[in-house]
Every structure is written in structure tokens, then in C-alpha cells.
Amino acid sequence: MPFSLRLDPETEALLRRLTARTGRSKSQVVREAVAQYAAGTAEAEAPAQTAYDRLKPYIGTVSTSGANYSQNTHEKYGALLRNKHRARRTR
């Protein structure tokens, strides 16, 4: 199907150099460029994955061998801060 396209001089020169270097026709180069552009925009338009979607394969795969690391974290952190504060006061 015939199609007319107006290009600025820089783009036209680039197209001419590209066709001479690759041995392809202007139509082939433009078709490939449009196909690449369409593929790139299709990827960009794909819905972004949530953090859950990205981490889903790893959720539930870690074993702590029965240790409960989340117990008493508030108290442990408070004790750490108190000890740090006391260490500064004794100087």
C-alpha cells in the first residue's frame, strides 16, 4: 500500500546512510523501525507488576528452622537503645 511520509533533512540523511550501509530499501528500514517501536511501546504499556507480583516466587521459601525472629523485637530494640545511651553517659 503506497504511503507518503515527510522527513526533516537530518532524518532523511540518516535513512539514506542506513540504507546504503545495510543494503536494504527505505521501505524495509521504515517497516523494521515501526515494528521495533511497536514492540517497545507494547512493553512500556504492559501493566506494571506490584511488589507482591515480583516477590511472589520467593514468599514462603525461607526456613528459620523453627526460630521465631519476630518475637520480642520491640523489647530487644529498646534494650539496644538503652545500652547505647548508657555507654555514651559513662564517658
Summarize the structure in words.
With 91 residues, this protein is an all-alpha fold. The chain has a domain at 7-53: Arc Repressor Mutant (Orthogonal Bundle), CATH 1.10.1220. It has helices spanning 9-22, 26-45, 51-55, 73-89.
Task: List its traits.
Arc Repressor Mutant, 91 residues, elongated, 0% strand, mainly alpha
Quick structural overview:
This protein has 91 residues and is mainly α. The chain contains 4 helices and no strands.
Topology (elements, then pairings):
Elements: H1 9-22, H2 26-45, H3 51-55, H4 73-89
State the distance separating the first and last CA atoms: 86 Å
Class from secondary-structure proportions: mainly alpha
In percent terms, what proportion of residues is strand? Answer: under 5%
The rounded Rg comes to: 31 Å
Outline the low-pLDDT stretches: none
Number of helices: 4
CATH topology of the domain at 7-53: Arc Repressor Mutant
Name of the CATH first level of the domain at 7-53:
Mainly Alpha
Q: What general outline do the C-alpha atoms trace? A: elongated
**Can you give the helix content as a percent range?**
55-70%
* Major β-sheet profile: none
Series of secondary-structure elements, N-terminal to C-terminal = HHHH
CATH architecture of the domain at 7-53: Orthogonal Bundle
Task: State the total count of DSSP E strands.
Answer: 0
In oligomeric terms, what are we looking at?
single chain
